[in-house]
Amino acid sequence: MKILVTPTSFLKPENAAAKAKLEAFADEVVYNDLGRPLQAEEILPRLEGVDGYIAGLDYITADVIEKMPESLKIISRYGAGVDRVDMPAAHRKGITVTNTPGTNSVAVCELAFALMLAAARDIVPLDAQVKKGEWPRTQGIELKGKTLGIIGLGAIGKNLATRAIAFGMKVMAYDPFLDEAFVKKNGIAGGKDEKALAEVIANSNFISLHVPLMDSTRHMINAETIANMPDGAVIINTARGGIIDESAAAEALKSGKLAAVCLDAFEEEPVKSSPLLGCDHVIMTPHTGAHTNEAVAGMGMMAVDNCIEVLSGKECSHILK
User: Fold this and answer.
1) 318: annotated active-site residue
2) Residue 82 located in a structural domain
3) Is 84 a catalytic residue?
4) The predicted structure's pLDDT at residue 225
5) Fewer Cβ in 10 A, N or C end of the chain?
6) pLDDT score recorded for residue 100
7) Which residues of the chain register pLDDT less than 50?
8) Residue 247 domain flag
9) Are 79 and 125 in a shared domain?
10) How far apart are CA 30 and CA 14, in angstroms?
11) Contact 75, 53 (CB under 8 A)
12) pTM attached to this predicted model
């Protein structure tokens, strides 16, 4: 068996056990030599004779999948999102695709919460000002009593909701597959239809995005939805770039409609030309939500287990249909 592994964090010490398990199973393991996610044209040259592909944030397009070798049986995503994998093309090719749901839910939710706190108290600009010798007396806002709207109440959204409730926040949520028992147990105002989404947008001081990037979610936060938000709202996106129309968000910041925008995901990564780069009250992190020691170890082991199970003909519970 030959395995290609492209996530750059797979070689970190936290993944030592997963790496050892994979190398004990496979005859040959090939690692990413570029130190970054692969572009579409960089994938095929590395797939010759490969049986399993443990993929990071590589751009796995339909054209690439159609040209993949017949030896390839599985794309094991190191992470939950598969928006960079052309799923219909993979199914047509007969390649199994798996992911690692839940392994990074605490890590991502904690970053979202940290961004929310940083925006509420202007932590980033205050830090910069003090280091320049200034002593500003900026007033922030408290989270207690504010409303957090969560769009996408999956594992990450649920973790965020329980933490927000502990801080004394009111939580509203929208999810087309809403967990009714969870929202009832936690006193969350939740719904699964467009009316519920509109209510979350119209009534939330903070809006945190936790949905996959699909045709239905691309630019779901746009000029129209921002106009329907309360004045001074804060948007947090630790999900995927493309969910927010960055140009519309930049205009809303400049006009004062939005108080802050916090992003861990961008339409272009690495970010180079986003209109938000020139705006005040923007906090940016380099798509690092899942990068904790614990999440890296969890993703690594589950991605390896998925790959081994599929290649061994065993049952795998994380196959995506």
Assistant:
1) no
2) yes
3) no
4) 98
5) C
6) 97
7) none
8) yes
9) no
10) 19
11) yes
12) 0.91
